Amino acid sequence: MKKTFLYTFILIASLSFSLAQAQKNGVSNLQTEMLDNPEGIDVLQPRLSWQINAEGNDVKQTAYQIMVASTLENLNANKADLWDSGKVTSNESVNIIYNGKKLGDRQNAFWKVTVFTNKGEIKSATTAHFSIGILTYADWKSTRWIGYEKLSKDDSVSQYSRLSARYLRKEIDLKKQVKSAKVYIMGMGLYELYINGNKIGDQVLAPVPTDYTKNVKYNVFDVTAQLKEGKNMLGTILGNGRFFAMRQDYKPYKIKSFGMPKMALQLFVEYTDGSNEVIRTDDSWKLTTDGPILSNNEYDGEEYDARKEMKGWNTTNFDDKSWVNARYVQEPGGFFEAQMSPNMKIMGEVKPISIKATAKETYILDMGQNMVGWLQLKVKGKSGDQITMKFAESLQKDGSLYIANLRDAKTTDVYTLKGEGEEIWEPRFIFHGFRFVEISGFLTKPTLDNFVGKVVYDDIKTTGTFESSDATMNQIFKNAWWGISGNYKGMPIDCPQRNERQPWLGDRTTGAYGESFLFDNQTLYAKWLDDIKYSQTQDGGLPDVAPAFWRYYGDNVTWPGTYITVADMLYTQFSDKEVIKKQYPTMKKWMVYMEENYLRNDLMDKDKYGDWCVPPESLELIRSKDPARMTDGEVLSSAFYYQLLGIMKKFATIANEENDIAHYDDLAVRIKKAFNAKYLNTSTNSYANNTVTANVLPLAFGMVPENVKEKVFQNMVHEIEVTKQGHISTGVIGTQFLMRTLTNFGRGDLAFKLASNKTYPSWGYMVENGATTIWELWNGNTADPTMNSQNHVMLLGDLMIWYYENMAGIKSNPEKPGFEQIIMKPDFNAGLTFVNASYESIHGLIKSDWKKGKSNLVWKITIPANTTALVYLPTTNASDVKVNNVKVSKSYQIENNKVVLELPSGTYEINANNIK
Predict the structure, then answer these.
(1) Is 656 exposed, middle or buried (0-12, 13-18, 19+ CB in 10 A)?
(2) Using CA atoms, how far apart are residues 792 and 493, in angstroms rounded to an integer?
(3) Whole-angstrom Cα distance, residue 776 to residue 622?
(4) Which of 84, 152, 190, 664 could bridge across to 649 with cysteines, CB 3.0–4.6 Å?
(5) Is 820 helix (H, G, I), strand (E, B) or coil?
(6) In the prediction, which pLDDT does 896 show?
(7) 10-52 pLDDT, tens per residue?
(8) 727 and 665 part of one domain
(9) Shared domain check, 510 and 370
């Protein structure tokens, strides 16, 4: 196991809250909002953050004082026995590194902050809390892993592996009154934990998946309220998850398998008299596989026989004589670490909109929305009756399920009734991607009230809203939200429905950046960077899928390069320097690996996937067969590697590795020179074979010589407007930079046309053909169904970034990351007449609500406290501008025919007349 003290800079979920109770006039209406309360972190120097939510303008932090105490009583008495920062003159309010006494094993820490502002002093009205987890392997070593590594009667290991759930129980006798108690659990692959019959926590499908040979996550819960003096019962159910049900032992050359479910648990109890007790897993725990969950496989579904329910199995006084003693089993192999990212949770419900009978004496349930999660069933019947539910994304013309695109995933849940009145059931250890469900087994016609869809994704907040004057763009945004959320499964996966569901790197190269406007995905992606780091080979190679559940190590730039671009997103959007410091050595190792093995004549000659999923020339094709649509792999990998060198140069400064900068600079100069020498055709002002992707990458990355830059851009515009008749022609790679590049070069109107198109190929074409998520293929309704997921996000490219940064005007200034300064520069002339958007940044809520008339603009904006904004207005005449009904008379600049105002925090209404 790792030595925790070496991992000072592990990202933690921000311990953030709003401040309340202003002590002086000038700041009012402050609200308290506790955002995180993490238990069991394994970071000895966690980072602390806070938000100042204040009415009134121009609120700036000038200093802060953090107090951290070992008990709440000490903190309330202002006895900071762990750390008192003293008054620190600083405007920093995010990622403040704890610098107090060394935190120990299972240490509790309570903290608060006093913020000094130009408007007065603010004391936090509430306190925040975190606790340290188990720091040493020795503490876990005395806890034995237990399980049952045998197959039961109906189990099988095959392409369609079946394995019944493991039920475990342990009765304990607490002789004294309990003061506090915490439980630490590693349940592989998935677990549910019970104490005295009550489920602990509201998480589902826990813990988050990892490559269990590299690292294993433990969860921590405060269970003081669930325990009592005397007899208590601990119970767990172990499901298969990624640990067992990954097509077990099927294609072992491709698919990793990890063994059968197992767990390790420690319950730490502190009594009121000051004594302690530790209850651990050992072979005195009782176990059975003869419970109601007969099978649970992420791809195939869950089978549940209610007749086999064991009433009271997780409470005291249950007769477990037929149960066996748990066996000691081999631990998973990976080191044990605290889970710093949230578990999944039921985040919402969807009620079906219709149910129709079919000729097969079944029923088709329509949820009205392609969703991810499962179905809750309510049913009455006789003992032994079976209800079967098969899930799919769409229907065939005859109204039956369309399942070819699921490949060999069975996606079927089976519930066997016990026959005792109304029965309500939902699965525990699986999820489905679906809109439609084929229902069979009802003796009378079911109604919509028999079913509720449960929406499941990571327990993270939606941070962004967007509405505009274009209905198609609004629906695309909704489709993106559903697609992104549904594919957050403790890691970002490509699709939720077929026999894949893998964390492909290339799907998130810029996708993670766009997603960060919609969701608070910081800890999710920080965890994913660890997954990528752990998957690196000894010589430096990175896989295309991480965790490497599939053994896809093929070497290319555009997929593994996501490792670097996601880290850059975390820095840009969340001001996270520590994640870069942590990951930099592994990133550098990969960059060197690619350079030493694949750099030929100063160009990267290794590519694997090309510009994946360019729109085919025929609606029936999955892949284009037209060479003119394909971009040379060397163009993609060389341009991308050049871009990564620039990011690594920035990272070298952040990570205090400035000695690397000269090499990055030298290599970038050489690649740029070789790239232009080989691929720039100065007679046609185009790159390579003149695909839009071949041109947009060097334009976006700053590789085009200044004297031909505008000509190359105009040539690219001609390709889009004339050759492609105003439609998109890029695949996964080109689409990542297309919308912003068009806008940055002055053609936001063309970007808007691409965004609002309704004909093939376009995002709007998906909407026009009934999509409620984003397809894997531009022609997903007509191509071979075996290759089309109807819930993929990779084709979004930079569309969501463009929505926020270029249409709403909400962008973090790269020079002041984490939205310390906001660039508010919408393209008012792209084609929209209004946009109303918001984004909950790490500093607070940003709003941009503008309406444009023929010659006037009304723009309402909100800038969070302790930040500023550069506001760009489409006029050169400041006298035509009013801010909060006051004419602008000073403190503005003219930049590229725009009036630029630098505004402090607050809420403003800007009116501009005679706009351009």
Answers:
(1) exposed
(2) 9
(3) 10
(4) 664
(5) coil
(6) 93
(7) 222 232 333 333 333 333 333 323 334 589 998 899 999 999 9
(8) yes
(9) no
CA distance 230 to 173: 5
By DSSP bridging, strand 146-147 and strand 892-895 are unpaired
Tokens at 16, concatenated: 């953030």
144 with 129, same domain: the answer is: no
Q: What is the CATH number of the domain that holds 538?
A: 1.50.10.10
| 261 and 158, same domain (yes or no) | yes
Residues 123, 112: Cα–Cα separation, whole Å = 8
| Token couple for 436 | 């439609």
CB neighbours of 738 closer than 8 A, spacing ≥ 6? 692, 696, 728, 730, 751, 754, 797, 798
Could you tell me whether strands 603-604 and 599-600 are parallel, antiparallel, or unpaired per DSSP bridges? antiparallel
512 near 801, Cβ under 8 Å? no
**How far is Cα 735 from Cα 729, in angstroms, rounded to an integer?**
9
Quick one: which H or E segment has residue 570?
helix 562-574
Residues 96 and 237 in one domain: no
The answer to whether residues 450 and 338 touch, using CB atoms and an 8 Å cutoff, is: no
Buried b / exposed e over 417-433, threshold 16 CB at 10 Å, is bbeeeebebbbbbbbbb
Residues 321 and 352 in one domain: no
Is the pLDDT reported for residue 2 higher than 60?
A: no
Distance (Å, rounded) from C-alpha 628 to C-alpha 831?
A: 31
Q: Which two tokens stand for residue 292?
A: 């109601």
- DSSP secondary structure letters along 503-565: -BSGGGTTHHHHHHHHB--HHHHHHHHHHHHHT--TTS---SBSS-SB------STTTTHHHH
Residue type, 99: N
The DSSP bridge pattern shows strands 178-188 and 215-222 to be antiparallel
Query: Are β-strands 856-873 and 821-824 bridged in parallel, bridged antiparallel, or unpaired?
Result: parallel
- What is the C-alpha R_g of the chain? 29
CB 836, CB 883: distance < 8 Å: no
Express each pLDDT in 133-145 by its tens digit. Answer: 998 888 887 899 9
Please report whether residue 719 resides in a domain.
Answer: yes
**Both tokens of residue 783?**
């191509």
Alpha helices (H) in 188-330, listed in sequence order: 241-244
Residues with Cβ within 8 Å of residue 539, at least 6 apart in sequence: 593
Residue 85 exposed, middle or buried by CB count within 10 Å (0-12, 13-18, 19+): buried
- Give the pLDDT score at 889: 82
Q: Find the largest Cα–Cα distance for the chain.
A: 88
Residue type, 903: L
CATH at residue 304 = 2.60.120.260
- Which residues, at least 6 apart from 204, have a Cβ–Cβ distance to it below 8 Å? 343, 344, 345, 346, 428, 456
Nearest to 481 by CA among 785, 791, 815: 791
Three-state DSSP class for residue 234: strand
Look at the chain and report how many structural domains it folds into.
5
The answer on 682 and 619 residing in a single domain is yes
Instruction: Classify 662 as helix, strand or coil.
Output: helix
Segment (H or E) for 89 = strand 88-89
CA distance 1 to 136: 8
639 contacts: CB under 8 Å, gap ≥ 6: 675, 697, 698, 701, 703
| CATH number of 892's domain | 2.60.420.10
Domain that holds residue 250: 137-341
Domain assignment present for 681? yes
CATH number for 89: 2.60.40.10
Cα 898 to Cα 829: distance, rounded to the nearest angstrom: 13
* Whole-number Cα distances in Å, 551 to 211, 212, 492, 871: 11, 14, 18, 48
Task: Mark whether 842 and 767 lie in a shared domain.
Answer: no
Of the three residues 808, 830, 848, the one that is the final residue of a domain is 808
pLDDT tens digits for range 314-359: 999 999 999 999 999 999 999 999 999 999 999 999 999 999 999 8
User: Looking at the domain assignment, is residue 48 inside a domain?
Assistant: yes
pTM for this predicted structure: 0.96
Q: Specify if 815 maps to a domain.
A: no
